[in-house]
Amino acid sequence: MKASDIKECPLCLSKDRQVYEVDYPFLGYQDFTVIKPGGRIGECLSCGLLFNMDSFEDPAFVESLYTDKAYLEKKETNHYVCSSEYKQPVTQYFLQARLLEKYLPENPSILDIGCFDGKLLREFRELNPVSRLHGFDIDCQRRPLLPEDVVFWDKDLNKIDGTFDLICISHTIQYIEDIRMLFIHLKRVLKKDGIVFIQVPNLIKNPYAALYGDVHYYYTPQILESILSFFGFSLLNIDEKNLFERDIVCAASYVGGNNPVKVLPDPIIPGCIEYFKDVEQRLLKFKHNSLGIFGTTINAGFTSAVLGSRVGYFVDENPSKQGNYFQGKQVLHPDKLTRDNVIILPYGRFGSGMYKKLSTMYKGNFILI
Ligand SMILES: [Zn+2]
């Protein structure tokens, strides 16, 4: 796709669009550092698709980030999730494989698009030692990271040979520029009763997801559902327990048909911009000099960019983060906190459960923003 193609919607081809200037820092998905001081998000006025105007102006930029050697070394794949189902934090791959298990036939064949080091495929292998596993990623440097028995495909979805009971697209769909081509290939390689699993940040649950600077698209459940329906897929909510609080988690099966794209309700980006403005004003009122920030993802990255040198440390329950540094500051476990520590929880109205739990379990002075 050429840069000029963004003049029309990559999904419905409409030329009607609204462009929003977002004057807040945009962060990278790899390590949540600021990659540009502001950006532009386009919204298709026909189908509601939200796209990163800047990534389409320079499409090689996104790809170069993910084929870079430094990315392979830096990428953090140990994302832990605290779930009421399990006593200890567990990895996202552990939960994903268990969510999907009941939808799989015996000896399933599974393809993971955006497989990176194969952690999700390994979880399926744990549950079902005889499944046939395939991984796809954008460049061949991933091959050595994968288990030997995984069939690996690189660069072009067209290369993938075989049909699958399950195709996983976890935290990957927002990077796939040519959505139409993606669905052509999904239909080609999905078995008749197979399902496609998609997990992607949910802009409704977490407005900060609009600040990813290195993605092509931003998703809400409505946008994803509209796209799936357009390509003849029907949706199944598989995360009834809401294990992934800030993501869209769904499975889709191909039912056929070619439904028109739905016109979506009110625009969402102006609300996100208002949200950032409000958070910024509230953060700048803090007079403390060594504030803590809870978390080590985009919410924490944004908060840190606003507070600058007044951030003293980060706090995270994730066992793989302990003793490490995030944006040059130490990451502490919350059990190291005292009553004198003031820790910002940048999770808005969806963070009240987290606030309650942390305030009960640990000594710090937590403030939900
Ligand atoms: Zn459109």
Please describe what this structure looks like.
The protein is α/β, with parallel strands linked by helices. The chain folds into three domains: 3-71, no CATH class; 73-254, Rossmann fold (3-Layer(aba) Sandwich); 286-368, Rossmann fold (3-Layer(aba) Sandwich), CATH 3.40.50. Helices cover 26% and strands 26% of the residues. The chain has a seven-stranded mixed β-sheet, with helices on both faces. The chain has a six-stranded mixed β-sheet with strand order 18-19-17-16-20-21, sandwiched between helices. A four-stranded antiparallel β-sheet has the order 1-4-5-13. It starts with 16 loop residues before the first strand and ends with a strand. Residues 1-5 have low confidence and may be disordered. Zinc ion is lined by residues 9, 11-12, 14, 44, 46-47, 49.
At a glance:
The chain has 369 residues and is of the alpha/beta class. The protein has helices spanning 53-57, 59-67, 69-74, 92-101, 119-127, 179-189, 221-230, 269-284, 298-307, 352-361; strands at residues 17-22, 26-27, 34-36, 39-44, 50-52, 80-81, 90-91, 109-113, 132-137, 151-154, 164-170, 190-201, 217-218, 233-237, 247-254, 291-294, 311-315, 325-326, 329-332, 342-345, 365-368. The strands form five sheets. The protein has a seven-stranded mixed beta sheet, sandwiched between helices.
